């Protein structure tokens, strides 16, 4: 049975709340489609580097998993985000500021 899909806007609001409760600053830098938009998460480690996370389908487990797409300089990550926005106008982008790279994406409830 396929997993139910939560509307993007609702998921983003819940994720931002969890980050806030954990004391992790986060911002929506691009508002995508409220119902069907995909989400990218940029985690800036405040040292000139950043990680970029996306959700991908894992065919082995038949679930959607968060995967780190890239870990590079912040300008490289920003360029990659811009390329993705050009291909997907419904894309959401959330930016986190976390020196230790903590995103909470590996915790239960954020799949």
**H/E topology pattern:** HEEEEHE
Rg over alpha carbons: 13 Å
Per CATH, the architecture is 3-Layer(aba) Sandwich
Number of strands: 5
Q: What characteristic shape results from the CA principal axes?
A: globular
Tally of contiguous helical segments = 2
CATH topology: hypothetical protein tt1805
Major sheet: arrangement of strands: 1-5-2-3-4
Q: Quick check: average pLDDT?
A: 91
Low-confidence regions? none
Domain unit count = 1
Instruction: Look at the helices and sheets and give the structural class.
Output: alpha+beta
The biggest beta sheet is recorded as: 5 strands, mixed
CATH-assigned homologous superfamily: Protein of unknown function (DUF1491)
N-to-C CA distance:
16 Å
Residue fraction in strands:
25-35%
Q: Helix share of residues?
A: 25-40%
**Name of the top-level CATH class:** Alpha Beta
Organism: Paracoccus thiocyanatus
Protein name: DUF1491 domain-containing protein
Write the layout of secondary structure elements.
Layout: H1 8-21, E1 26-30, E2 39-44, E3 49-58, E4 63-73, H2 74-87, E5 92-97
Parallel strand pairs: 2-5
Antiparallel strand pairs: 1-5, 2-3, 3-4
Task: Tell me about this structure.
- With 111 residues, the protein is an alpha+beta fold.
- It has a single domain (8-97), classed as hypothetical protein tt1805.
- It has helices at residues 8-21, 74-87, and strands at residues 26-30, 39-44, 49-58, 63-73, 92-97.
- The protein has a five-stranded mixed β-sheet.
- The longest helix has 14 residues, at 8-21.
- It is globular.
- It starts with 7 loop residues before the first helix and ends in a 14-residue tail after the last strand.
- The model has no long low-confidence stretch (mean pLDDT 91).
């Amino acid at each position: 049975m396929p997993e139910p899909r939560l509307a993007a806007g609702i998921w983003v609001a819940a994720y931002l709340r969890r980050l806030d409760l954990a004391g992790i600053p986060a911002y929506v830098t691009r508002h995508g489609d409220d119902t069907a938009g995909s989400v990218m998460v940029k985690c800036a480690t405040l040292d000139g580097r950043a990680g970029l996370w996306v959700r991908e389908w894992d065919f082995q487990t038949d679930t959607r998993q968060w995967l780190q797409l890239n870990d590079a300089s912040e300008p490289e990550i920003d360029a990659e985000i811009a390329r993705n926005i050009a291909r997907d106008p419904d894309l959401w982008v959330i930016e986190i500021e976390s020196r230790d790279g903590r995103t909470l994406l590996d915790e239960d409830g954020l799949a």
